[in-house]
Design a protein that fits this description.
Largest sheet: 7 strands, mixed
Number of helices: 9
Radius of gyration: 24 Å
Number of strands: 11
CATH superfamily of the largest domain: Glutaredoxin
Helix content: 25-40%
Oligomer: single chain
Strand order of the largest sheet: 3-2-6-5-4-9-10
Mean pLDDT: 83
Structural class: alpha+beta
Low-confidence stretches: none
Strand content: 5-15%
Number of domains: 2
């Protein structure tokens, strides 16, 4: 293999021109993919109709000096008990690596946010959202233990499928009602119980500027114009199918997949050019799939 490699190509000027163009294109595509991925995650589960967020009740780690810094009853906290405060509501999981970037940002800024002089104090509450797979004990050992590298020095709770308290007296799943199927997810809830900011990634392109500004405005009591609602996910067959198809397409705009799109497109185009050759070799029977068909089935595959 070494004998067949022409090292002389590395001395060609055109080689390095092509290499430079490749780097530029890679950066452009990567930035575009991050932008599209961030935009899509920011609009998922969002409604233009601003409504107060659903009431919930969750069990905290009940740590002295940390979880009891917010109103508790037998270790349980209700969102309504935090009314009058600005709440950073963080949906997280132990095995969600991107979630830990969110918590790192919170830890770096909570002190400065809480030091701002305002009649609306800020509190943070992280809720374990993969409660069907991650037990209360594991959440406590990971986020509640001071010796853990992922320790959270603010209240931490574990969600449940019956955490939501509906007006008719029934219960609901907190992940469903807060559109927290995709993690990480962090909301800013103002002192009257309205969402004023949402972030669905641990590495936003603007470096958290929009989110941080929304926190500051909420603390100042000046975030009414930022309010929006949370749209409950449609769990019907058609709703799940449409979301699955959308997410399947979205896979190609994810940071890890979008940069390989040029080579993927080139490969598909080359198959079309070689259609007659492939037929002669017996490798293709029937009509070759159209670009539209390739796109649809590719999207259905990840979905």
């Amino acid at each position: 293999m070494a004998e067949g490699f022409d090292t002389g190509v590395l001395r060609e000027r055109d080689t390095w021109k092509a290499f430079g163009i490749g780097i530029v294109l890679f950066c452009i595509i990567a930035y575009a993919s991050l932008s599209i991925f961030g935009l899509s995650s920011s609009i998922y589960g969002v409604s233009e109709d601003a409504e107060q967020v659903p009431e919930f009740e969750v069990m905290t780690m009940n740590r002295t000096g940390i979880d009891d810094s917010i109103p508790l009853e037998d270790g349980m906290v209700k969102l309504s008990d935090l009314r009058g405060s600005v709440v950073i509501l963080d949906f997280t999981a132990v095995d969600c690596q991107n979630c830990h970037y969110v918590q790192s940002h919170m830890e770096d800024n909570l002190g400065s946010w809480q030091s701002l002089s305002s009649e609306y104090p800020l509190v943070a509450l992280s809720i374990g959202s993969w409660y069907r797979y991650e037990s209360f004990e594991r959440i406590n050992d990971t986020f509640g233990d001071p010796s853990s590298s992922k320790h959270m020095p603010w209240p931490v709770a574990n969600g449940a499928s019956d955490s939501i308290m509906l007006e008719n007296g029934t219960r609901g799943d907190i992940v469903e009602y807060y559109a927290a199927q995709n993690l990480p997810l962090v909301y800013v809830i103002d002192h009257e119980g309205y969402v004023v900011a949402k972030e669905g990634t641990g590495t936003p392109l603007d470096g958290w500027r929009a989110f941080d500004r929304a926190v500051e405005r909420a603390i100042e009591g000046d975030a009414e114009s930022l309010r929006f609602g949370i749209e409950k996910a449609d769990r019907s067959f058609s709703g799940v199918f449409v979301i699955g198809l959308f997410l399947g397409v979205l896979v190609y705009f994810s940071p890890c997949a979008f940069p390989v799109l040029p080579s993927y497109i080139s490969y598909c185009l080359s198959l079309g050019v070689r259609e007659d050759e492939l037929r002669e070799e017996g490798k293709l029977e029937g009509a070759a799939p159209s670009p539209f068909e390739v796109g649809v089935f590719a999207a259905l595959g990840p979905a």
